[in-house]
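Lay summary

Proteins are chains of building blocks that fold into shapes. Our project writes down both the chain and a compact code for its shape. Here are two examples, one after the other.
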Amino acid sequence: MGLDALARLKPLLGSLLAALFVAAAAIVAALLAPGSPAAAQSANAHCGTETGDTSSAGWTSHEQLKRQLAQIERASGGRVGVEVVGHSNRGREIFAATVGSGDQVALITSEIHGNEKTGTEALLSMLRYLGSSDSARAREIRENITLVAMPKMNPDAAELDRRGNDMSWQEVVERFPQLAGARPAWNYYTGRLQNDDYSQRPGFDVNRDFNPDLDYVPRPQDFPGSSSRPGWYITPEAQAVRDVYRDLLDRFGRVDVFVDLHHQGPCYRVGDEDGDYVTLSLSAQFVPDPRTPEGARYAEYADRYDFDFSRQLNVAAYDALQAMGSSPFKNVTLYPQGLDLPGTALGSFALNGSGTVLFEVRGQTWTYGQKQKGQLTRAVETGLYGILQSVADGSVREIDPERYHEIPQTAR
């Protein structure tokens, strides 16, 4: 093409570029208009496409956990006590840290799934604060609650940055010879799951290995089981949590509160498909009420089950998050209801009389960057303090449990 032709095209090209620029600006403006989903959502939330550190490297490792717990114990001047309460299948320590001397008991666990890590960060932060602070809030919690935290209770899975532990069915049979010839448990991973290859290192979903009978011994006729049947305490990680829970029952007569800290998918929305992305979801319900026809098979636990208290605890967490007054902390929903999962820690312990709270935080380790990591960890802490403070000052019992059903639903 000659120079004269290029000269004649130059004004036309300029007009075209200007028009494209205006159109692009209009699209961006529409997306960012007040009330639009894009405007409501923080810039670092892209449903798995975030840039930055999206590996497990930015989270507390098992070795770092040991060092941090030891440091917290020393700095607390005796307020925090740390014990090794078990070992994972690969021999890593499972810790329980206790702070407070109140007659109300709260047990909180994190990383039962090893790629769900914000709970561990939140528990370490809370232990530092409650162990060292002389604030009125910290004193009130310590004086009224015995808090037992089990951060990273599935350390093998945490080190592999995956959901399941590191344990073969053959190892289970070696520990429980009566299971020779039984079909492997239904929650045994041997293939590919999400980003993980269990064909090389099989393992179990530990959060399906609990049983409301705290003295249960595995029986071959109970395998392979199903999601709606109790678990078996075949994994050392579930055994460690069960043993801590049972010890607290022996010492105090009850475990008032049990909270399990989890993660869910990164792209759920509040209310409907146009709502903000969910920061975390809460739930009080993991098995049908034993006093109803749907829960009749749990009738032996009916005198202990306290759904109203579980609902009050969930509302206390919700209210604390709403009081933060801004996104992402207000983006809280109710996890799907109607569950029948007696093999979960939450289902088993609810049947044993504990008020139970599920935290399902947005995303796993590969779906968010460092900024969102900090926001989500803070959201977990905020909800947990809402629970602990309301238990410590007694206000939780004044909450109308029916408010639980006013928490917005999750759009999936």
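And here is the second example, written the same way.
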Amino acid sequence: MAINTSMLTVGSAWIQVTDGTQTKTVQVLSGAVRLADATTNPGNGFWQGHMLTDNDDNWATITPPTIAWIRTASNDGDSAEVSIS
């Protein structure tokens, strides 16, 4: 059996979630993340993006051609737990 769901701890560095060819679901289990569409790593100074929290808006489905990146929404060292499949 192949398991395609992964759990990530997301910090202040941007993590690439998709490469523009995949459909992925991102769920925030704890904390809050920012989600951005960018062809390359948005970099430390980039704060725009969609906000996903562990409250009401905790799911996002990413579809091609979006190249998605996530990072914690906090700027004070907090992290977030996410599930990606």
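What can we say about the second shape? Residues 6-84 form a domain with the Jelly Rolls fold (CATH 2.60.120).
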